[in-house]
Amino acid sequence: MKLSNLIKNLYQQVFIGIVVQNTQVKVCVQMLKGKKLEKEVLKSFDISQAKPSSELNSFVKKYMDESPFSYVSVLNDSITQGALPTCSMHEAESFSDLGSCVTLCNDDNWMVYSEKSELNALQKRFSVTGLDFIFSPFLLLSSFFADKLDGKASLLVLIQDDFLSLSVFCEGKLLFAQHYNMTDAVEDESLSEEMDESTEESLGFDLDDEDSLSINLDDIDALDELDALDDLDNLDELDDLDELDDIEDFEESLNDAVEESEIALEEAKSKHESKIDNFSDEYKHFQLIQGALNQFYADDKYNNQFVEDVYIANTSEEGQDLVKFLEEELFVSVFKRHIYLEKEIALLSIQEAKQ
Amino acid sequence: MRNSFIKPRVKTLISPEFKLLFFFFSITLGMLLTSYTFLKVKAVMYESNIAELQAKGETLKTDIISMNGEITFIEIEKQHAEGIYTSNTVLKESIHNLFDLVPQRITLSKADLKEDELVLYGITPSKEVYEFLLLAPLRSIFHRSYTSYYAMDNGWYSFVSKNYLDRELAVQ
Questions:
Q1: Model confidence over A142-165: pLDDT tens digits?
Q2: Assigned domain for A88 exists
Q3: CB contacts, 8 Å: B2 with chain A
Q4: Is B10 in CB contact (< 8 Å) with chain A?
Q5: Which of A164, A174, B29, B44 gives a 20 to 30 Å CA spacing to B1?
Q6: How far is it, in rounded angstroms, from Cα A131 to Cα A140?
Q7: Range of the structural domain that residue A245 is part of
Q8: B6 in a domain, yes or no?
Q9: Does the pLDDT of residue A229 top 70, yes or no?
Q10: Model ipTM value
Q11: Checking DSSP bridges between strand A81-84 and strand A110-115, what pairing results, if any?
Q12: Number of A–B residue contacts, CB under 8 Å
């Protein structure tokens, strides 16, 4: 054992895993003494424009000050990143232009890459606390599903709030990988149009079908009479009406009923919209996975093989619809596991710090 | 196998704040040590100087003692010289007085002057001349005077006059 490792084991080591998402940053702090985990802290911070807040910086600094051996690691959120089934830069040219990228070879048969400027920007964003490790989501995915890589061709999918990373492994070798930015995917008009049509059919409800709402507007007969009431001012017969007070009472009751119905309608709409949002996200994920598999099957350079199993690592608890879609549409076996990215990053940094 | 796109920062047990503190403490300690060394060297130098000065003092003391001895010797010599000078002066005056005593008619051929004794040799035309003109003053000076006459061919007398001063009588 090296002297430095011996000293490290005598001291407490702090590993801080950070995941930046669209609206929040998730942090996992693991404090180790030797190999024993002494303390683990998980915390989320709200952020804007993917910049760490002062609250986050002070939180990280507080734990960094606990030990001279503290490591801050972050998941690479660069848009231009990916993985290639070769470690040869010459062969990699047929897949992508890596001129301005940083590459890391893994197991001497596949590599991950990321745009250098985006890595620099990420380091600049965390300049207050500093960074020790930046991990690729593909390495994290292969580490998370390490026991699934050696078998037949399997598709590994990592679903984050803002990104979707997928890779195809066969007998421990990477065949194909893609990284998608979900915020870009949302802007895809054709995708959203298709989604709108199909979601409503699939879910089996219709916003226009007012029967499904909690209050049926047809049941309020007085609504039809409201327009008629507007015409009453022009009627000469109005003066002849002795029951004017009754009409005013009736108008008030009608207004109350309309207000109540509007509120109920808004509530029903918001409820269904959130359902649609979740569903649309999962459908977007399905479409991206389907598109990526089509690309994998269509392009000869990927040495394509039929994918039988799909392993999904999802940062949220949702995803049942995605599993259903994949199983029904692509005829594959789907296994879904929930992943705490910040915790996995902290674990990866522990392994990395040992080297 | 590296899994991270960047290398971790170098971890040291010493924090930058501690480094700064250590730096200032080192400077302070260095200054104290330098001052201590300087003072120590100076003290050693002073001690060495003191030893040299003490040795020099001892030498000077010895020199002073020897010089005092010399001074005493010189003083004694001086006193001695003064004594000689005084006695010489006295002698000179005595001789001068003696020659003043000798009259024109008596000629001295030799005079032996000792501390308590005067022996005169000369010639005189007659015994009377000698006795009246020279013996009388000699008798007034000396306690005892003995004169022997020898007749010469030309009628004159050569004489030997022995005159003595008695020390005991002189003290009285």
A1: 989 888 888 788 999 999 888 899
A2: no
A3: 104, 352, 355
A4: no
A5: A164
A6: 17
A7: 211-276
A8: no
A9: no
A10: 0.70
A11: antiparallel
A12: 55
